Amino acid sequence: MRILVTGGTGYIGSHTCIELLNAGYEVLIIDNLSNSKHEVVDKIKKISNKNVVFYEADIRDNKKLYEIFEGNTIEAVIHFAGLKAVGESVKKPIEYYENNVTGTLTLLKAMQIHNIKKMVFSSSATVYGMTEKMPVTEEADLSAVNPYGRTKLMIEE
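Now predict its structure.
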């Protein structure tokens, strides 16, 4: 099974890629390297002792995304790509909505066109806002209080 990992050179993405490779999956990574470095790809290969296909691309780039989907048989997507800093999202909300929400919509359209129906989305506890009850469970009320959290909540919806 071939799995596409968006944001696969980030911290969580890279560790997920290693686990997928070690479990016998083929892995394709798409990352624009805005929060990571290309050297991570070599580290993934070294740690797993397996090959991984890497595309330096932004998921908002329709043309490149469709080329990747056309050139590969992808059975599922694990979606980590996105901007991720709460404080920065308050200063740059438009950038967060464009990157996180528009990027995900572009990805979902490509998946729909290529009939890929399996996706794991990496959300955030920020979708629950400032809850008093700990630990936070998925039954907690949704009340994102910053642009980052609202983008994650929009994507979940």
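DSSP finds six helices and five strands in the chain.
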